[in-house]
Every structure is written in structure tokens, then in C-alpha cells.
Specification:
This protein has about 55 residues and is mainly alpha-helical. The chain is built from 3 helices and no strands.
């Protein structure tokens, strides 16, 4: 069975890369509502994962 911390770290890396891929849209100002909402959800999962790993 895979260690849970490895899985959580892998998911955090994916969410971090998704957030980084949206930086050009933030800079150019071409954001739509769905992108903003999904970025907020990804940020919340990122914070949640970090809090779980710290425990």
C-alpha cells in the first residue's frame, strides 16, 4: 500500500502546477468566473493538504 504522505504530496504538486499555469491569465486579466472559482478551490485544497502533512 502506498504511503498516504506520498499521495498527498503528489496531489499538492499537481494543484500547485495548476495554480502556476493560471498566472498568465491573472496577469493579462483574461479570467472568467469558472477559472477564479476553480483556483480558489485548488488553493483551499493546497492549504488543507499542507495542514494535514504538518500534523
Amino acid at each position: 500500500m502506498m504511503d498516504k504522505t506520498i499521495f498527498i504530496r503528489a496531489v499538492l504538486v499537481v494543484f500547485w502546477l495548476l495554480i502556476l499555469s493560471r498566472i498568465p491569465a491573472f496577469v493579462s486579466g483574461t479570467l472568467d468566473t469558472i477559472t477564479i472559482v476553480s483556483t480558489i478551490v485548488e488553493l483551499s485544497f493546497l492549504v488543507w493538504g499542507i495542514l494535514i502533512l504538518r500534523k
